[in-house]
Amino acid sequence: MMKMDDLLKLPVFDGTTIVAGAKGLNREVHTVNMMDAPDIIPYLKSNELLITTAFHLKDDLPALLELIREMSRQNCAALGIKSKRFLGSIPESAITLADQLDLPLMELPVEPSLGDIVNKSLSHILDVRTTELHNAMQTHRQFTQHIMSGQGIPKLLDQLSSLLRLPVLLLGPYLQRISGRCTASTATRLEALLSAGGRFHVETSNFTAFSLLGGEGETLTLFPVYTHRQLHYLCIEGFVSPAERSSILTIEQATNVIAFELMKDNALKQNRRRIQNEFFTNFIGGAFSSSEEIASRGREFGLSIEHRYLCAVGKLDGRDKTSSFMQYKAEQDRIAEHLEGELVHFRYPLHLFTHDRAYVLLMPMVEEWKTLKPSFFALLEHLQGKIATYFGSELSFGFSSYAQPLAQIPVSYKEANEALYFGGMAGKTRFIEMYHPKEVPEILRMIPLEHLRKFYADTMQGFEDETLKDHHMLIQTLSVYLEAHCQLAETAKRLYIHRNTVIYRLEKCEEIIGRSLKDPEETLRLRMAFRIKALLPQKDGRME
Which residues touch 500 (CB under 8 Å, ≥6 apart)? Predict the structure, then answer.
């Protein structure tokens, strides 16, 4: 990047006098043009140095002043005039105007010629650009070699930090640290700047940089790293001005290489996530015939038969099930990726799977539950807060009450899912619900699945479609009413609605099922149906 004060150091400008606009000598100059025609204004370009004999302006002071004004509007670099040839001297009004606009106005000596000034200036600008391009290509080659040799993004960031002599971090879409050496003070400072709502200043270069300005001159400069899925940021601890052309080009090469590496890593992660989710789906679906097969397949995903596992199942509250599969899948992938990033920082190892619009966590019991419980609850609350902040969604969890051996994880999954289901039916949001063993569900698990499906379908046949006639709301009211031992006041309290509203909804339920809720046999049958629904696979329990 060439500045006017740098260009003026060339021997071809010896004898040049700055008569006005000295404050504008830090303007960039990209090209040099020579003018001796009266209609130059339409051809002005940004960051252009214009030199002239002013022959056509010698008797037209208003035209000279208009040229200066227009050059300022066009953000030209400077105006140089060989005044001795035709003007004699530059008019005072032109000097005053150029000073007001901070547009450098220069008086050029009689020699050399305008042609020499143009040729030697352009040649120097081209040499500088060529050197910049060569250095950028060299830097890009070095960064690429780091990646190709398998050293990865951390080593690249170390090299970039060494070149810039500033600490460098790679941040995720939500400004969470992904890679790069980060001292405790730097991490604290970044967190403080973000939590304080640091001011963003947009600077324009070949690509956009954001400066987060904190107190006492603290500055973090963020450069976007564009991939096909999400925006990441290269964080420089310190201010990087767009005027630092060499630094900007170096950072730009780094962001390009990092973007490709992130896309490659994402493709590998997506494939790995797909394979492990297929394993989990087959696992809980009973596809594995022996404990040996379970142990063998589990080892591929870091699961061990030597551990017992606690299972937690998380789902988004009130998520619209009418969204397209592609929309749902894209959001699920983004949330799963974010959860994975958060789980890395947990003190105990955790395994994440996605299944049936749910996020499944398996935690090996490496210590006693009373030791793990506070940290585990804190983690789930932390994840709820992050998803609410970054995705605007409420995440609820149900989890199994006992840690089970690897082969019994399908049982733990059903328990966690049941806890989640009943928490939602009770009208809760953003909750964490533990499974409480119940005698009836345990007995129901002994009944063949096809018999449970038939009993449920026969009992709830009036509610074939939860999306019609407020069926979902009515089912929820009916479930809470039965759980509250058919107490109207308690039902109204749990649902935060008026007692009369409860009565109205229960009357609608009676119309739909064609039976009286005052009949103990019927209420028992309905309670059994709700228990069965929690045990059935979702496609069976969902009334479509």
Answer: none
Over residues 436-465, the mean pLDDT reads 77
Provide the pLDDT confidence category of residue 184 given band limits of 50, 70 and 90.
low
Element spanning 19, H or E: strand 17-20
**Helices assigned H by DSSP within 426-487:** 439-444, 449-459, 471-483
**279 in Cβ contact with 360 (< 8 Å):** no
- Is the Cβ–Cβ distance between 257 and 157 less than 8 Å? no
What lies within 8 Å, CB to CB, of 181 at 6+ separation is 157, 158, 161, 167, 169
Chain centroid to Cα 174, Å, comes to 4
264-298 residue pLDDT tens? 888 888 888 899 999 999 998 888 888 889 999 99
What kind and span of H or E run contains 332?
A: helix 325-343
Alpha helices in 346-470 (DSSP H): 369-391, 409-425, 439-444, 449-459
Round the CA-based radius of gyration of the chain to a whole number and report it. 35
- Mean pLDDT throughout 96-101? 92
Return the closest-CA partner of residue 80 out of 122, 49, 103, 112: 49
* H or E stretch at 136: helix 114-148
> Taking phi first (over 0 means left), then psi (-120 to 50 degrees means alpha), and beta for anything else, what does residue 469 get?
left
